[in-house]
Amino acid sequence: MYKVGDFYGALDQFAPFYTAEDWDNVGMLAGDMDAPVTRALCALDATDAVIDEAAACGANLIVTHHPVIFPSVKNIAAPSAVWRIIRENMSVICAHTNLDMAAGGVNDTLADLLKLENQRPMAVTARRPYKKIVIFVPEQAAQAVRDAMFASGAGLYNGSLYADCSFESPGTGRFRPLDGARPSTGAVGRAEAVPEIRLEMLADPDRLDYILAAAKQVHPYEAPAIDVFEAFGACKETALGVVGELPAAMEPGDFARFVRDKLALDGLKYVDGGRDIKTVAVCGGGGTDYFSDAVKAGADAYVTGESKHHILLEA
Fold this sequence. Notes:
Structural class: alpha/beta
């Protein structure tokens, strides 16, 4: 049976929690990582109605977008949501701004629903260097190690436009196994010289552990020689919002109705910018702090969850 920690790990792989904004509160906010999950319920917020539904359907894990503890609590009293969650012996995992920024997350989904083409990041919020993995492997095992690393996500380059990228150079590996070692080549106490390949490739920093585990699994040595460096020449960007183009330009009123229909809204608020709309920026939630980024990106329209009055005037 899956545990709460399994769900946490899957979410962390898809939308790493470290990418959330500093002011946000995401991750495991209530419960027990080791608790078996009988049933899971997903919701926007952990409201009373959602907790009632979880209890009625036998769910002991709730996964929400908005944090159930935000920004902080000074006490846990009845009948607050946190008090009810604890009483019902439930766990809660929240994925908020990290889910907004994730590839395939909230903003990518919004852009897809609005049929935006040539999608690109709106506001880069952080950059992290890729990892350069250097692994030394016997010539006869190089293909297996290379394939295992590629299959785990290594070797992507230039925004994933190139795959299976690596560099190899031949050399000689020297070692002398000591007592307790189990060498695949040679014998304990005897110095060895083995033709080896120096295999190098880039790795997404979020995939590093998986790639190294895959390489070690097929590597013939019990203790492979592996170096990991930070490769500042290639960085992984964390971005909030998406910019893209509509297939055809629209008049502002028509675009507002288009957004309403595509997102199945009961209504929306918009201001008429006085020009046709072709380039569109989207940012889920309260994205008005990034309005200037939408302007810099050349957007004719900005679609977000809520707006302050002065931003509407500026628009």
